[in-house]
Amino acid sequence: MKEILLLKLGELVLKGLNRRVFEDTLLKNLRRRLSPLGRFDLRARQSTIVITPLSEDVDMDEAADRVGRVFGIATYSRAGVAKKNMESILETGKTYLAPVLEAARTFKVEAKRADKTFPLKSPQICEEMGGFLLEQFPHLSVDVHHPDVTVYVEVRDFGAYVHGNPVRGAGGIPVGTGGKAAVLISGGIDSPVAAWQMARRGLELTAVHFASPPYTSERAEQKVVDLLEQVGQWSGRIRMFTMPFAHIQEEIRDKCPEELFTLLMRRFMMRIAERVARREGCEALITGESLGQVASQTLQAICCTDAVVSMPVFRPLIGSDKADIVATARRIGTFEISIEPYEDCCTVFTPKHPRTHPHLQALEEAELALDCEALIDESFENARVRLIGGPAQGKEGSL
Ligand code: ATP
Ligand code: MG
Q: Looking at the whole model, is its pTM more than 0.70?
């Protein structure tokens, strides 16, 4: 039987005049995500997108899975396609929904008649379908309040469809409608979740990762690539910049007070990330910080790291508990990768007693011992860039 995907749009329904832009971006994102699976026809009408496979052997499980990771969609359903007459609609309901109806005990029918030329009105469609299904599946009973399955019949301009309970979509707003931001990504649990949350608010992502070979390994960097590939299944393509960081860390270790090490390091991260961001046309930075989680995430410490950049810094996890962050990480598929035991540059040379209530002036004075500009330039000279989630997946180049 012919099968399609019916998508209900999320918040973008509310966006008034911008709605067109949102819808076009969403369609573009969907096309890009589905194109490796075959050819599809996409149509947007009345807060619904209908996706019809045009190639023969499209993997609809995979298509549904991909659609479930596109931001801007509230719910989606796989639906059986019927001819626009009642006989075909009833037959489609019976055969297409047989597996779910056999597993259910109660059901109800809802009809949407967007094509006003269809001879039966919605209540009549419901009545006919309800009666027919009760005959065909005698173990079922009707429950209009809390049914196991709601059978939806949608009669639209370009076809009639039957489907069961919709599946929750990724929510949020389409990536690319909110501009672009650079996420500081580590191999930890938090920053991939932060990246995902901001992509869900419509931001396109660029990623900046600090690596400290020989103190950190190739494998540690590969872990970050793996994390971004997972995030990229939701956000779309990501350009990842790997910035060498060991020399900067050695200089701080050798020339600055030990208890300021972490904060001085974080100030370098922010400066470098902002410079990458500007080159890439990004208008904000994103970090996975959460207030009070570690010494460098106290309010005073955050003030000191923010002082070196002028772009807004989004910290979507600032008010989240670790347990909530872990729950999201599991949902988006990054958790299992994040807990792989590889080192991060943040764990290199960590001081025994980091300052939790730093003074900006002390940090600025400590930095006088360093040639900050030269160190940053050197990191850029040796930076690497790769595209995650694109046709040239993982291919590396210099900046
Ligand atoms: P995460 O789980 O994201 O690693 P964390 O709790 O370990 O977070 P920190 O190590 O203090 O926290 O890092 C705070 C934030 O700084 C991270 O969320 C990330 O945005 C950024 N960061 C840390 N290490 C790196 C790195 N190696 N490269 C890029 N950004 C980093
Ligand atoms: Mg970390």
A: yes
